[in-house]
Structures are given as structure tokens and as C-alpha cells.
Design a protein that fits this description.
- With about 300 residues, the protein is an alpha/beta fold.
- Helix content is about 35%, strand content about 15%.
- The chain is built from 10 helices and 9 strands.
- Strand 8, helix 10 and strand 9 form a beta-alpha-beta unit.
- The longest helix is centred in the C-terminal third of the chain and has 17 residues.
- About 35% of the residues are buried.
């Protein structure tokens, strides 16, 4: 697993400071942010001289995972009874389950801590299969409105429109609120995650990373003109609302934001819907009031 490329962008926003407050980074998204890489894949890092040092930072010589003593994390994890997993960063903070998995948090935490040169805290809120148009829909985007094609399909299937709308209202923005709730809970009691935290020195929200897009890309109902240029303009608008609302709700008006553009096509050039969604995500780079502190890469 190579270090995720959005590290470079967030590092560009970060200024090392050897005085507190504690730097806090927020990692948010769907399955890509959860991370589904198995621990057994780490050995491949040692096959490339460029990534071998990262493997050394992750594992002891006997192959067991190291605890990153200067990196702490609190992560939503539905496989845990409490719904949360937290402590010192190590392997195992990827998607929950029987097998120990890895997400972007591992190489991100190691690399950012090395750059900052002091302890850091990661707060990760990610759930697989979640959209921006509904699940993470931010307040300022307004209510989800069904388009004519969707309404026509509901009628053909004998659906009760009032009930369908009621269910949509119920599900809209749920994960936006869950994200904020977990972040605020952790920030309200940082010592529960990082026992050495000095409350007098406080903390600073130093960066926000967004890694999501798949569920919007495959949603032909919300985006009925998929495949055509501009068919995901609504995603761009919602993402801009999302960034502004996160900053407002966390009282961090200049919070640096990095958007990890989708890349499920490997080294092949993206085509069709994926290319259009990537363009929608990249459009944040041309939003005037985001200049200098928002980067989609």
C-alpha cells in the first residue's frame, strides 16, 4: 500500500509547529476511507525500495505491527460493541471484521506525524456504501428533491409517493450528523483517546480529508443524465455545501480540506461516469473562496 497521494496536498497546507496545540486531522468518507486492504498485503511494500521504509515504520522485523506512539486515533467501527475503536495508531483501523485491515489512516498518520514532528490525533468517520446526495447531505444543500424521472418510476412500481418522500427525509443527512457527533464527542474528551493530552495547550483542527464518490457515481436515479458532460454538477454543488457546512459546524472557517479524487480504475485512464465524477470532484479547485485551503487531487 503506497502512501495515499492526498498526504502531499495536506502537508502543503501544514506548517510544522513545535508548540501545542495538538494537531487533529479528520478522515471522512465511504468504503475507500474505511479501507479494505488486508494486513497480509503489507509484505509487498518491502519489494519496492521506494516503499520499503514505510514497511519498516509499520512493522517490527518479525512482521508484527508497531504501535505508532505519537499518533492516536478514534474511528467509527461497527464491528466493535461500542461502535468505536480507538487508541494508538496501528494496523487494524480499516473496515471492521474478522481480518485485520488497513485504510488510509495508517500511512497518513505515519507520514503526517513525521512531517509535523509532534503527537497528532486522527478522528475517522467512514461507512461503506454512503452517498453525498443523501447520506452525507449537508444542511445548506436543502432537502433531497426527487426528479420527474424518479417520480414516474415510483408510480410505475405502485409506490406511495408520500411514503417514499417520508423515508427519504428520514435518511437524508443521517451520516453527516453522525460524522459531526463523533468528531464533537472525541474533541470533548480527547484524554479518553490520547491520555497525555494537555487541555491547557488545547487542540487545533489541522486538516480534513474526504474520500468518497462511488455511491453517487452509480446512482442513476439522482443523476438521470449520467454519462453526459455536467451530469454530476449536483455532486459538485453538494460537495461545496458540505465543505462550507463542516467548517461552520466545527467553527473552523479556514479548515484545510483535501478531496481524494476517485481512482478505482487503477492506472487506466478513467472513462464514462467515473471520469465525469472525477471532474466534479476536481471542480473544487476552481471555487474562489476555497483557494489556498481546499485541494482535490
Amino acid at each position: 500500500m503506497k502512501p495515499i497521494c492526498f498526504l502531499v496536498a495536506l502537508i502543503a497546507f501544514a506548517t510544522p509547529s513545535f508548540a501545542a496545540p495538538l494537531k487533529v486531522y479528520l478522515l471522512v468518507g465511504q468504503s475507500n476511507m474505511q479501507g479494505h486492504a488486508a494486513e497480509r498485503t503489507l509484505a509487498h511494500l518491502g519489494m519496492d525500495p521506494k516503499t520499503a521504509p514505510l514497511l519498516k515504520a509499520i512493522q517490527h522485523e518479525d512482521g508484527t505491527a508497531k504501535l505508532q506512539r505519537n499518533v492516536w486515533i478514534s474511528s467509527v467501527d461497527t464491528s466493535e460493541e461500542s461502535g468505536v475503536k480507538q487508541g494508538q495508531l496501528t494496523v487494524g483501523y480499516g473496515a471492521g471484521g474478522r481480518e485485520s485491515k488497513i485504510g488510509p489512516e495508517l500511512s497518513f498518520g505515519i507520514t503526517m506525524q513525521k512531517h509535523i514532528g509532534e503527537p497528532i490525533l486522527l478522528i475517522k468517520t467512514s461507512w461503506g456504501g454512503k452517498s453525498l446526495n443523501t447520506d452525507f447531505r449537508p444542511p445548506s444543500a436543502g432537502p433531497y428533491v426527487f426528479n420527474e424521472k424518479q417520480i414516474e418510476n415510483f408510480k410505475k412500481r405502485g409506490k406511495n409517493l408520500a411514503e417514499v418522500r417520508k423515508e427519504k427525509i428520514k435518511s437524508t443527512g443521517v451520516y453527516y450528523r453522525l460524522m459531526l457527533g463523533h468528531i464533537q464527542k472525541v474533541l470533548g474528551d480527547i484524554k479518553a483517546v490520547y491520555p497525555q493530552y494537555n487541555a491547557k495547550e488545547g487542540h487545533e483542527l489541522a486538516g480534513f480529508v474526504w474520500f468518497q464518490g462511488w455511491n453517487d457515481m452509480v446512482d442513476g436515479g439522482t443523476y438521470p443524465t449520467r454519462g453526459q458532460p455536467g451530469s454530476y454538477d449536483a455532486y459538485s454543488k453538494n460537495l461545496a455545501h458540505f465543505i462550507r457546512d463542516v467548517r461552520k459546524d466545527l467553527k473552523a472557517p479556514k479548515l484545510p480540506v483535501v478531496i481524494g479524487i476517485m481512482g478505482q480504475n487503477g492506472f487506466k485512464e478513467a472513462q464514462g461516469n467515473m471520469a465525469i465524477v472525477k471532474a466534479a470532484q476536481a471542480s473544487m479547485n476552481s471555487v474562489a473562496d476555497f483557494k489556498g485551503n481546499v485541494k482535490a487531487i
